Amino acid sequence: MKIKFVEEKIMKGMMLVTTLLVFLFVGSILFTIIKNGWPALSWEMITSLPGGGFYIGKEGGLLNAIVGSLYVVGASTVLGLIVSIPVVFYLNVYLRRSSRFASLARLAFDVLFGIPSIVYGAFAFTIMIYFGLKTSLAGGIIVITLLIIPIFIRSMDEIARELPQDMLHASYSLGATRYETIKVVVRQIAPGIATATLLSIGRAIGDAAAVMFTAGYTDSIPVSLSQPAATLPLAVFFQLSSPIPEVQERAYAAALILTIIVLILSILGRIITNRFSKNKIQ
C-alpha cells in the first residue's frame, strides 16, 4: 500500500513538472514575441502596405500579408469543409464503420495527416511547373486546402465514430432516410466540426513552407486569383532573415499580429464549440 502511495506521488510530481515545462515554453515564446514585436507594432503597421521592398524596406506596414493570410485561410477552410464533411458522412453513415474500405481510407488520411507541409508545397510546385503556372493566390489556396483536408476528416471522423449506433438505428426505424439521418448526425458532431475547423485554421494560417512554393510573395494586395499573395508566416520568414535590424523588428511585429489572430480564433472556436455542445446527446 505504501509503495502504491509513493508511486502515485512520483507520477503526480512528474505530471506537475511536465505541465510547468509546457507553460514555461509557451510563456518564453510569447515573451520573446511581445518583447520584440510590441515596440514595432503600430496602427500604421496594420493598415498600410509595405514600402521599399519586403526584404530591405523599413516603411509602411503589413496589410498585404494580413489580407493575404485571410484570403488563403478563409478560402481553403471553406473548400476543406466542402470536401471533408461528405467524406465523414460517407464513412460513418453510408458505410459500416468496421468495413475494410473505411479502415483503409482512415489509414490513408492518417498518412496524409503526418506528411510535412513542405512536401505538399513541393508536390504542388511540381504540378504548377508541369502546367506552366506561376505562383499565385489560387496556388496557395489549393495547397493549403490539400494540407488541411486530412485534419478536417480525421478530427470530425473521431467525433462521428463516438456516436452510438443505436442512434442511427433509431433514426432508420422511424422511417428516416440516410439523408435525414445525416441531419441528426450533424447536430451531434457540430462541436467536432468546430474543433476541426479551429485546428485546421491554426495549421493553415501558420504554415510557411507550402505557400512559399505556391503563393509567392508581393508587397501589394492581390485582386485576382492569378496574382501572387503575401502571408504573415512568409513575412516573418523573409524579414527575420534580413540583415537590417528595423526589418527584423517588423518580422516580430508580424509574428505578434499572427499570434493575436490565432488567439482570437481560439476564443471564438471555444465559444462556438460550447454553444453547439448544448445540442449534443450524452
TrEMBL record:
Primary localization class, coarse: membrane
Alphabetical UniProt keywords: Cell membrane, Membrane, Phosphate transport, Transmembrane, Transmembrane helix, Transport
Record-linked Gene3D superfamilies: MetI-like (1.10.3720.10)
Chain ranges passing through the membrane: 66-95, 107-131, 137-153, 252-272
Annotated membrane topology: Multi-pass membrane protein
Keyword Transport on entry: yes
A molecular function (GO) term: phosphate transmembrane transporter activity
GO terms of biological process kind: phosphate ion transmembrane transport
InterPro entries referenced in this protein's UniProt entry, alphabetically: MetI-like, MetI-like_sf, Phosphate_PstA, Phosphate_transprt_permease
Positions of the ABC transmembrane type-1 domain: 66-269
Subcellular location: Cell membrane
UniProt record similarity statement: Belongs to the binding-protein-dependent transport system permease family. CysTW subfamily.
Protein name: Phosphate transport system permease protein PstA
Native source organism of the sequence: Candidatus Odoribacter faecigallinarum
Gene, per the UniProt record: pstA
